[in-house]
């Protein structure tokens, strides 16, 4: 039994004696999320269409969150249950299996060895929690959403992590967070696997990702951020962020500034460790002894002006250093805290410079409340490679509608369409059609 499971068992045992206490039951909440997801990926110029996928499934996402027992120290428990059912999977996407995995992750479902999707899959998690004053500790299944680690929820079921986390709000305006992650279940897999980054190979994994940092609300319109992340034997990362809202005339301007500084850690910092697979994606010149070593500085600025029903964004991101931007990436679908992490691409390659523009409209004032649309365009260039600087672009369109009243109030419909072109990765066209509804059980 690993350390997090042992600690969880102890916490649950202690909790069992308190479960009937006032507050634990009365403040409990439970919901069942229903997510019907159709996914279509059409890749270009690939042999035997191996990169294509057409999958349709029904997802069930059960969430339970207890209240806390009374007293100076309060105890509680959260639980999540996930089930994905295949409705159709006409396309196949054969991916080499990772060592130790029973099945390789597909787009919506785990895949059998022949590339066919399983009929259904499920996973579950439990989290014990303890609260003292305005500080809360959690151990078990986590869905972190921080600048240095963000869970992925871009398919039928969300990605989950196992570990522990402490969040404190003892000082007004300051939120402090720290913790450790040991493993993950990716969005389309039931396997509990260790952690790595893009570029790693073989058995090069880590079961220790440490993170800490905080958000300080200096004024009601200005938030400053600092976070630190360390994936043992891969990289250490510092993050600085600033978010500012400024009322300008009838509208408002939001400024979002981000800076990441990442360097090697442990085995990634030695030639022998990198030879064992503890490598980063990126491009290095012939004879460079640092091949595969994490060396990255990424900064970005995003400005969004909102006026009534309209919003418009303009942003720029620069990836500097020899390696690609490092983040937890097991290859089964991962998210990074970049302004360029979009429907298909992430634009995080070594040397890449990206401009982006986005426009959105809320149709409420035109008599259609609940209807929203947006379109974004990203263009990246200067990607380092053996064939000179490479380029890519992506166009994303999104249309969302949520019923505002009636027996199905809250039913959401979303169509997401994206096109990616260039010579960095395979050209692709992608469509997602999602119906979502949440039933409140408690």
Automatic annotation (TrEMBL):
Residues 1-21 form the signal peptide. The keyword tRNA-binding does not apply. Keywords: Signal, Transport. One of its GO terms (molecular function) is porin activity. Pfam families: OprD. One of its GO terms (cellular component) is membrane. It comes from the Bacteria. Belongs to the outer membrane porin (Opr) (TC 1.B.25) family. PANTHER family: CHITOPORIN. This is Outer membrane OprD family porin. It comes from Ectopseudomonas oleovorans.
